[in-house]
Write a structure and sequence with these properties.
The chain is an alpha/beta fold and 112 residues long. It has a single domain (7-104), classed as Rossmann fold. Helices cover 42% and strands 17% of the residues. The protein is built from 5 helices and 5 strands.
């Protein structure tokens, strides 16, 4: 699966990190369809849809983002455990050129 043209939900509470990630996504040919910086906003955007991929910060102002991941999982008609969802991620800091576990999984992800 090509990343170019994909619409992304970006969930990140730190403005500078969000801007950096938006630039990285643009370099990959992605469009940020929605951005949320808080857990309530992220849940609202996740339920609204309009994206193919979600990139979630695990901690939003000290609150775990797992409810958002679970809402996305329900929408995709499959469920994953919290441990499995967390394993799919990258640790900060990350760089566009550096490989992380989820980048290859993202390329091969096929929503149900």
């Amino acid at each position: 699966m090509e990343l170019a043209g994909m619409r992304v939900l970006l969930v990140e509470d730190e403005s500078l990190v969000a801007m950096l990630v938006e630039d990285m996504l643009a370099d990959l040919g992605c469009t940020v369809a929605a951005h949320a910086g808080s857990l309530p906003d992220a849940l609202e955007e996740a339920r609204a849809g309009g994206f193919e991929v979600a990139l979630l910060d695990v901690s939003l102002d000290g609150k775990k983002v797992f409810p958002v991941a679970e809402a996305l999982s329900v929408q995709a008609s499959h469920s994953r455990s919290q441990a499995e969802m967390a394993e799919r991620g990258c640790r900060k800091p990350f760089a566009l050129g550096r490989s992380c576990r989820s980048r290859s999984k993202l390329k091969n992800f096929r929503p149900h």
